[in-house]
Amino acid sequence: MKCFRHLTAVALLVAAIRPAFAADVTYPPGVRVGLAPLVGLIRAKTFTGFESEDQSVKVLVAELPADAYKEVKTALSTNPVAPNGSTPQTIETSAGTAYYTVETAKDANGPVRRYSMMLPGGTFSGYVAVQVPEKAGKIYSDDAVRQMFASAAVRKEVPVDEQLGMMPFKLSEMSNFKNVRTLAPGAALVLADGDEATGFEPAPYMVIGVLGATPPEPDDRGRFAQQAATQIPGIREARITMSEPIRIDGMPAYETRIDATSGKDNTLVTIVQWLRFGGPNMLRIIGSAPRDQWSSAFPRFRAVRDGIQPRG
C-alpha cells in the first residue's frame, strides 16, 4: 500500500510539472513535422498548423529543404547572433537538436512575441513559427512555448491517403510509382520512382497541381503552355519539341513536350506537360523521365493523367 501511495504521489508530481498540452504529438495534415499543441490551440483553418479560437495565437508548421537546417547550424557556429539581434537557443527534441529564436515585434493589433524554430528531419528541415500577442503572454509564456518546441517530432512519411485527401482532385491511378510526396499541402503532388535522398530526376516522376491563373482567351493557350513548360523549376537548356491543343476527358487542354537537362547530375530528360482548362482553376500535369526511359514512362504518365477527376 505504501508503494502504491508513493507511485501515486510521483504521478501527481509529474502531472503538476508537465506543460499544459492539449494532446500528444499531432501532425498537421500533409506535413512530416508535428508537436504537442498547448491547451487552447486547435487545427488552423487557413494555414498548416494550430491557432487559438480567436486566431490571435498562431503556430505555423512547415517543411523546408534539408540544407536549411544545416545552414542555420553552420551560421550559428561562426556567429551566434541571429539577424534580428537575438541570441538563438538550442533545445533537444526527439528529432535531434533544434535551434530557436525569440523576438518582440508589433503587428496591427499591438505588441507580439515571435518564436522561430528549425529542427533536423533527415531529407528535410522542420520549421515552426509561433506568434503570441502580448495579452496572451501569461498563458502562452516563453517557458510554455519552449516546452511545446521540446515536444516536436518528425515522421518518416505522410500516409498516402492523407496526402491524396487534401488535394482538390481525386487520383484513381498511381501507375506503380513508388513514392508519393506533397510539395505543397493541398496544392501540388509528386509521384516518383526516386526519392528525396537520391533525387527525383534520375527516374520517372510526375508533378500534379492546380494553377489559379489561366489564359484570358482560348487563343492565348498555346503561348501560355509553351511559356509554362520552359519555366518548369529545375530544368535547363529546354527545347520544345511539340506543342498542340488536345482534349482530356472532354475538356480543352494543351500538350507540350520538351527535351532538357535536369538535376545535379545533368540528366538528359524528356518532359511532357499537360494543361487542362475549364473551371476556375487549371490543372497542370508534368511527367519527366530520363530520355532512355521515355518510351516506358510515357504510358504511365498518360494513365495517371486519365485517372484524375475533380473532387465532388
Describe the structure.
- There is one protein chain.
- By secondary structure, this protein is α+β, with helices and mostly antiparallel strands.
- The protein has 2 domains: 24-154, Mog1/PsbP, alpha/beta/alpha sandwich (Protein Transport Mog1p, Chain A, 3-Layer(aba) Sandwich); 160-310, Protein Transport Mog1p, Chain A (3-Layer(aba) Sandwich), CATH 3.40.1000.
- It is built from 6 helices and 18 strands.
- It has helices spanning 2-17, 66-78, 142-150, 160-166, 221-230, 294-306; strands at 33-34, 41-43, 49-52, 58-65, 89-93, 96-107, 110-120, 124-133, 153-154, 169-171, 179-184, 188-192, 205-211, 235-248, 251-262, 267-276, 282-290, 308-310.
- The strands form 4 sheets. It has a 7-stranded antiparallel beta sheet.
- The longest helix has 16 residues, at 2-17.
The biggest sheet amounts to:
7 strands, antiparallel
Mean pLDDT: 87
Strand ordering within the main sheet:
2-3-4-8-7-6-5
> What's the order of the H and E elements?
HEEEEHEEEEHEHEEEEHEEEEHE
Percent of residues in beta strands: 35-45%
Radius of gyration: 24 Å
Low-confidence stretches: 1-19
Shape: elongated
CATH class of the largest domain: Alpha Beta
Q: Which architecture of the largest domain does the CATH hierarchy give at level 2?
A: 3-Layer(aba) Sandwich
The CATH topology of the largest domain turns out to be: Protein Transport Mog1p, Chain A
Task: Give me the secondary-structure category.
Answer: alpha+beta
Total E-strand runs: 18
Report how far the terminal alpha carbons are from each other. 61 Å
Total count of helical runs of at least 4 residues: 6
